[in-house]
Amino acid sequence: MHPSLFSNTEIQRFIFEYDLKNIDALYFGKPVFNEISNSEIAAQIERRAHVQRKLPSWFEKSEALYPPKENLAQSSSELTALKKTSLLKGLMQELHISNECAADLTSGFGVDAHVMGEHFQRFDSVEVNQELLSLQQHNCNSFKIKNRSFHHSKAFDFLKQAYNVLYIDPSRRDAYRKQLIDLRQCEPNCIQHYDQLSALSDLFLIKASPMVDISQSLKMLPNCFRVDLITVHFELKEILFFNAKQKGSVEPEIHVHHYRKDALQWSVFSLDKHKAEYQDITIKPLSNFLFEPHPGMMKAQCSAEISSRFQCAALHHNTQLFTADEDRILFEGRRFKVIDHFSFSKRNMKAITGGHFHVISKNFKRSVQEIRKQFKLKEGKDEYLFFTQEREPIVIRAIRIDRNQIEN
Asked: Which of 32, 84, 240, 399 is 20 to 30 A removed from 392 (C-alpha atoms)?
């Protein structure tokens, strides 16, 4: 990034005040400043617009600068960073862990470090990418943060001294931009250095891909005592593994947190994983209402507890869809009123071929793309088609009834 972005307050003010609607005029117009190209300025304006909802505190700072969009994509949102920090503070109190010192070993753009760091006397930000680290330092100055130290280093080359708390968010892209999921494949490899993390912290937190296999990961994390799944607006954002050597080998607690747009607050769903694995699931045929859990609950594989807590039945052991005679307005997920249902066959599909529907395929032999192509189904507005499984493959036609409360 051009040095003038960091030093010239006039350029920073121009970025802050520029209207994104006029971005083409900036790209193709005469240079606004002699020392820096319009394209570099325009890139900052576009990145700032990209973070308006994700990082509102940064968006409101006239001096703030931003990294490329791929770095912003892995960065936590301000909302999830605040939630993560709240969970961390609660566990520190429970385990009687001091707030003297902590470190983010893969601090990136620095959102988590910014929020977490406020609660420690000393906080070290470690980052291997010098440009990202420079952005962190610059933005910390704009926020007037005083307790932060910055270190240009690989995570485990830096980690030599003990901390009260460590945080690590391994990169989930390789050198060819291929997505990585397994913790052993991510960089840095926190499984390979797990003993080092355990020995040099009272508590450490690993952030993982939403697609990671939780059960397989726990086999590699012997001191993990808690797993938290963070869901925002029906999208699973983060999976967090909390580890502490003082807890030893225990059955981890699992907590699912969902930020609801209707209430503008978090709801939490906690389950006993060991109990859930052996608890019977209530199975019943489709009734008047259909319920789809939010992704965090589906990822936690807690069908039996969902059925018990919300007094509804699953359609099938392997289909995370639930039904009841009456609406369950407190259900954590999307709620639908059933219009019709029928056995899946070409003959039965003739009546809706070519229609406009949202299409969902769960535990079904065809993907959404294959279904749309075969039956010429167009994108819908109000009605949903669920292709799923009861005792046989079925199609459920339904209307979503929670849309006035929670946006998709």
From this structure: 399
Tokens of 234: 């029906």
Tokens of 171: 């990169």
> 213: helix, coil or strand?
coil
* pLDDT of the residue at 269: 83
85 and 227 share a domain?
Answer: yes
Closest of 161, 306, 302, 183 to residue 241, by C-alpha:
183
Cα-Cα-Cα-Cα dihedral of 399, 402, 405, 408, to 10°? -70
Q: Is 108 helix (H, G, I), strand (E, B) or coil?
A: coil
Whether 241 and 291 map to the same domain: the answer is no
Q: Is 396 inside any structural domain? A: yes
**Helices of type H across 279-407:** 295-300, 303-310, 346-349, 368-375
Q: Contact at 8 Å (CB) between 242 and 228?
A: yes
pLDDT mean over 221-247: 94
Residue 264 belongs to a domain = no
Strand partners, 201: 163
Question: Containing domain of residue 381, as a range?
Answer: 278-400
27-61 pLDDT, tens digit each: 999 999 999 999 999 999 999 999 999 999 999 99
Handedness of CA 56, 57, 58, 63 (dihedral sign): positive
Q: And the tokens for 173?
A: 């892209």
